[in-house]
């Protein structure tokens, strides 16, 4: 719109017509947001979200909500911050360094066992996303018994270091049925592709997409076994915050969750666009890998058992199983109730 020339007189007849038009336009725009918060004239509230790792498709809903203005519509300006592992992310959220983050139930329970107050406020990985990748050209795996003596490479701090023996026992196998190595996370996938290990701790919506990319380049046929298909009924990562934040500002928690799940709904329809957006901000990342991660995440976030409650809802029975499994695997002696680990109170 051209600015008025201060040297020319204002024609009042046109002004009286323009004012109602402008007022109508403002009213229309104010109704475009979820609650008009972004158009109220108030400054956006700065919020941090710790990704726990590098940007990837599993947290694509957060990036979608940033890109599509869903947070701004709630009056929020969200910054997605690179993380350095789930345990560190959850503990720093509990300490107040970050507002929200991508956290797993293992880290939340261990935080609680140490006297912390981290809480999961929304589910994302509604099932455990991890699995065992293997080279189908080298190994024929028909049952879990065929895994006997094979070497699994896993990150030194990966939950699988403690969960694997318990998972094997649950399936009637000895705890040492698979030989488990503690490795630098940076070399786990490449070591597997190079044949230095037999199995890879590969996660849907995360490193599995990269493993498949490396396998394609090496001409290998990779298949996998999902832990959840063999007696591991657990939640994976979700949205985590602190009990203090919930108590002090429940409206903020609700607003953040509303916008975030709108972001994941957008990613369900447009995984490629979300991947492109993440790659535009992180040019070192492969859009094809990000798209595969986002596609995987679109499956993980859906839970038929809680669909009627809307996205993010925790199932009490699965969360009870999650807590019991983690306490057993990590030898947590402190009594921790499932209701201390999660809440559904801010999803509606």
From TrEMBL:
Please state every residue range assigned to the domain named SsuA/THI5-like. 60-273
- Example GO biological process: thiamine biosynthetic process
Quaternary structure, per UniProt, is: Homodimer.
Is Acyltransferase there in the keyword field?
A: no
Q: What is this protein called?
A: Thiamine pyrimidine synthase
Q: Which reaction does it catalyse?
A: N(6)-(pyridoxal phosphate)-L-lysyl-[4-amino-5-hydroxymethyl-2-methylpyrimidine phosphate synthase] + L-histidyl-[4-amino-5-hydroxymethyl-2-methylpyrimidine phosphate synthase] + 2 Fe(3+) + 4 H2O = L-lysyl-[4-amino-5-hydroxymethyl-2-methylpyrimidine phosphate synthase] + (2S)-2-amino-5-hydroxy-4-oxopentanoyl-[4-amino-5-hydroxymethyl-2-methylpyrimidine phosphate synthase] + 4-amino-2-methyl-5-(phosphooxymethyl)pyrimidine + 3-oxopropanoate + 2 Fe(2+) + 2 H(+)
- What are the alphabetically sorted keywords of the record? Iron, Metal-binding, Pyridoxal phosphate, Signal, Thiamine biosynthesis, Transferase
Primary role: Responsible for the formation of the pyrimidine heterocycle in the thiamine biosynthesis pathway. Catalyzes the formation of hydroxymethylpyrimidine phosphate (HMP-P) from histidine and pyridoxal phosphate (PLP). The protein uses PLP and the active site histidine to form HMP-P, generating an inactive enzyme. The enzyme can only undergo a single turnover, which suggests it is a suicide enzyme.
- Give the signal peptide, or none: 1-37
GO MF annotation list: metal ion binding; transferase activity
The pathway that the record names for this protein is:
Cofactor biosynthesis; thiamine diphosphate biosynthesis
| Domain of life of the organism encoding this protein | Bacteria
List, alphabetically, the InterPro entries matched: NMT1/THI5 (IPR027939), SsuA/THI5 (IPR015168)
Family, as annotated: Belongs to the NMT1/THI5 family.
């Amino acid at each position: 719109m051209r600015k008025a020339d201060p040297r020319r007189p204002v024609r009042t007849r046109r002004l009286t017509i323009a004012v109602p038009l402008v007022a109508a336009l403002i009213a229309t725009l104010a109704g475009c947001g979820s609650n008009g918060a972004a158009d109220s004239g108030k400054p956006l509230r700065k919020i941090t979200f710790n990704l726990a790792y590098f940007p990837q498709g599993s947290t694509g809903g957060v990036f979608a909500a940033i890109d599509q203005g869903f947070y701004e519509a709630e009056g929020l300006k969200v910054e997605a911050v690179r993380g350095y592992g789930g345990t560190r992310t959850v503990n720093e959220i509990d300490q107040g360094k970050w507002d929200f983050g991508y956290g797993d139930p293992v880290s939340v329970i261990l935080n609680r066992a140490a006297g912390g107050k981290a809480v999961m406020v929304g589910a994302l990985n509604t099932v455990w996303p991890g699995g065992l990748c293997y080279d189908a050209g080298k190994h024929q795996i028909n049952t879990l018994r065929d895994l006997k003596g094979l070497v699994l490479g896993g990150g030194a701090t990966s939950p699988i270091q403690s969960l694997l023996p318990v998972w094997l026992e649950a399936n009637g196998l000895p705890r040492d049925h698979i030989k488990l190595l503690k490795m630098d996370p940076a070399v786990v996938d490449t070591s597997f592709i190079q044949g230095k290990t037999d199995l890879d701790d590969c996660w849907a919506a995360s490193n599995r997409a990269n493993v498949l990319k490396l396998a394609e380049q090496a001409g290998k046929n990779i298949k996998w076994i999902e832990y959840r298909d063999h007696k591991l009924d657990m939640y994976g990562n979700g949205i985590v915050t602190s009990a203090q934040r919930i108590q002090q500002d429940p409206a903020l928690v609700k607003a953040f969750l509303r916008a975030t799940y709108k972001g994941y709904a957008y990613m369900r329809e447009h995984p490629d666009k979300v991947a492109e957006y993440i790659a535009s901000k992180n040019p070192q990342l492969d859009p094809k890998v990000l798209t595969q991660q986002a596609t995987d995440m679109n499956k993980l976030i859906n839970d038929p058992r809680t669909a009627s409650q809307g996205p993010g809802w925790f199932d009490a029975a699965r969360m009870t199983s999650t807590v019991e499994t983690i306490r057993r695997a990590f030898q947590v002696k402190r009594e921790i109730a499932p209701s201390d680990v999660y809440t559904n109170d801010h999803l509606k």
